[in-house]
Amino acid sequence: MVAMGVELIVVQDILGHSNITTTMRYAHPIPERKKLAVEALASYGNIKEENKVVSIAR
Q1: What is the largest CA-CA distance in the chain?
Q2: Is there a contact between 8 and 27 (Cβ–Cβ < 8 Å)?
Q3: What is the DSSP string of 10-53?
Q4: pLDDT in tens, 33-46
Q5: Is 16 left (phi over 0), alpha (psi -120 to 50) or beta?
Q6: What's the pLDDT score for residue 49?
Q7: Measured between alpha carbons, how far is residue 49 from residues 37, 45, 46 in Å?
Q8: pTM for the model
Q9: Which of 34, 32, 28 is nearest to 1 (CA)?
Q10: CA dist., res. 5 & res. 53, Å (int)
Q11: Residue 51 pLDDT
């Protein structure tokens, strides 16, 4: 389920785990998703830089 994009908290509920750490034990990171996460983080930095407001002292 996690590999298909289902949120971990939803998987926990469906499987009836009382603790999220139990669910996390069985949810392994997928290399493609890790790459997408790193790319998203990198683009977030670029977006913040593009939207930077420059103030001019008078």
Answers
A1: 62
A2: yes
A3: HHHHHHT-SSHHHHHHH-PPPHHHHHHHHHHHHHHHHHHHHT--
A4: 889 888 998 887 76
A5: left
A6: 55
A7: 19, 6, 5
A8: 0.56
A9: 28
A10: 35
A11: 58
